[in-house]
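Note to self: keep these together.
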Amino acid sequence: MNPYSPLMRNTLLACLLSSLCLISNLSLQAQNPETKPQSSPAVLPGNGLSHFDFFYAGEAKTQTMYIVRDGKIAWSYTHNALKGEISDAVMLSNGNILFAHQFGITEITPDKKVVWNYDAPEGTETHTAQPIGNDKVLFLQNGDPAKLIVMNIRTNTVLKELTLPTGNPSKIHGHFRHARLTKAGTILVAHLDMGKLCEYDSNGKQLMNIDVPGIWSAEELANGNILITSSKVVREMNRKLETVWEFPLSEATGYLLNSPQTSVRLKNGNTLVNNWFNQWNGNGQVEMDNQPVQMVEVTPSKQIVWALRQWAEPNLGPATIFIPLSEPRTTEKVHFGDIH
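Structure:
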């Protein structure tokens, strides 16, 4: 081929232009490195720690719980277990706190005295618990088989034990996280590893079974509807299984909400949604120049009117459980079938 032929000249020119474009792009990338999307806005709505007085706990490497009043930590407690994480916690009407911490369940007084403790048997985990009256606790026990157990905590006797289905009996960590009793005396169970919300009566009969991929928790609202928290959406569903409200997390413009676990419906109609941070992922450290929020308050029209971002001075750590103290969520006045 003639090296000066039009075909060769065009080929050489194309190669030259391609090389110049590559060099130009590399230069631009060096001058303007791609920035990571921000996890939350620089300025948050609401009044930070002063927005609510609240109880706070989360699945973290350190098993610590907090009460915040007037924007300051008024009380804290660290459960000094060798392993585990706080997956669930309930404040009782007498001020005691009942909490599930993966390998056991404990009730403490406000002055941090342990009044009851249950150690999960080897090969099992406990991630959720709810009191019934002042002398009974209902909890789920991940295991092979997985169980629902009602125990008299004064005598440590088992009053009821039911076997529950799981997606993979041998992979116990992923069986369940949260379960809550209803006014009718049934229980709503978030089957994490099955991606299902199921309702059972006190004899273990399944009354409802719906697919909810990524489900973490569900609870009955005052209006009888069910508030469901899953990996991509928080949804309110009526008893006809119709969606009456939902908050897709992808619609939270400016916020990276990628790990919700629980949500709370406030009396004003707004909804609190947590945003968990996984300390077991990567180096387990929050990027201080790109901090995610731990909680948001969302209106029915899906506007975020408050967000909590508190990773320093003081560092509250990851969020799972959030209880506004102005709206007590006392739950011991419930029943499971004929167990009151």
